[in-house]
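Troubleshooting log. The previous run stalled partway through. Resubmitting the same two chains, unchanged.
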Amino acid sequence: MNAVEVRSLFKSFGPVKAVDGLDFTIAAGSTTALLGGNGAGKTTTLSMLLGLLLPTSGSITVLGEDMVRHRYRVLPRMNFSSPYVDLPHRLSVRQNLKVYGGLYGVEHLKDRIAELADELELGEFIDRPAGKLSAGQKTRVALAKALLNKPDLLLLDEPTASLDPDTADWVRSYFQAYRERTGATIVLASHNMTEVERMCDRVLMMKQGRIVDQGSPAALIERFGRASMEEVFLDIARDRQRPEATS
Amino acid sequence: MTLSTRRIEAMCLRHLYILKGSWPRLLEMAYWPAVNMVVWGFTNRFFAEHSTWVAQAGGILIGAVLLWDVMFRGNLGVALSFLEEMWSRNLGHLSVSPLRPHELVISMLTMSLIRTVIGVLPAALLAIPLYHYSIFTLGAPLVAFWFCLMVSGWAMGLAVSALVLRFGLGAESLAWVLIFAMAPLAGIYYPISTLPAWLQPVAWALPPAHVFEGMRAVVFEGDMRLDLLASALALNALYLALGAGLFLWAWHGARVRGALLNVGE
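Second attempt completed without errors. Output:
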């Protein structure tokens, strides 16, 4: 069963084609990365999957619902985290979680917040203003907000950007454990190849709004004859031919 | 149309937390209406001694300035609730939550009502010991005037929010200044007949002109003019629908342009 189905998806901003004919599916319970350089169309695609951005044409089905026409049927089962979108700075962490818990209709909210505070180690700063936290603490708060409603589909935009290696590793482990525990589907846009190799079952390589290659990290590495995803990424970004294609 | 009171409550809670956590904000909300009222209270006292028109109805100018503040605060309450989301770069999270745009609008209107009561009520109470004038002596018509002016403020606040959503935070000063374009035409302190003949139809196209004329009819003649109230209500319904429509149109446009994810300071 697919959690996401995208067909003939286009998005233009004036003359600029940000997404140029995407077709892909994402299996339920998998972790999939959208990978590509700056301007490849990752964030635009993620925004359309969230219903935040309307496509110029094409269809997006998320958890069985048409995202353009019926996004509100499915939004309670999704969530999103990005280091580039903040939570209200003046509200404490607890207040933010109460507000978003109300928006997502979370039952037994007090217990759920306590549960997340315990899992994500928010206890020492849960009553501090969200704007006064360190980058690592903010990431954990954003994670708590993203997991409040126990989403079936989690969309993550650069989930470990600007985190130190220790915190980034902790975040990745948490997502892996969450997926194993709940069977949720995770879609992430990232520039971090280590993260992609470690977390993802499948990678959609994007360039200039198109998917130029796809497969598991191991399969892509093997196909390109490289040692790591970083080298595969550079091959694609710099228009190098696949080694086997040149032979 | 789906409407969730829980989501609306959550959005109101978000703004109430800010008010609760900042006494300077609460003070500022009550400060300007109080200062305005004090200034116009002295003006009223002076004119009461030198003008037969003002002398006929003690406190007419104080009542007018308090009611004008209802409209001003009504507008600001809506616009500030929206600007808070932009200043805190929170619109992206709200837009991907199950919160519907019309629920966001209703929460903004609710917060506007709360902010207006916090702002205007202390000034109205202060006028009683300072100038021996109580706006509450207007009785039931006061509720109608308050409601009409509040709705006019809401319509303008929604239009301003739409412009900010469309043109970005560069347009935020409109929240404070746009409403003053209406002030000369609203007949706050003088009858609409004072305006040049060619300008009077423009004034009558605005709901506040009907409200302030209605207020003077109550104060000077003890007459609640239902015709003025009806026209104010009808015009308000029209302008509120236009304001809400403009906001929802701007919201849709932001989804087309991809502006909801990256708006902010």
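Takeaways: The radius of gyration of chain B is 19 Å. Residues 217 and 223 of chain B are 5 Å apart (CA to CA).
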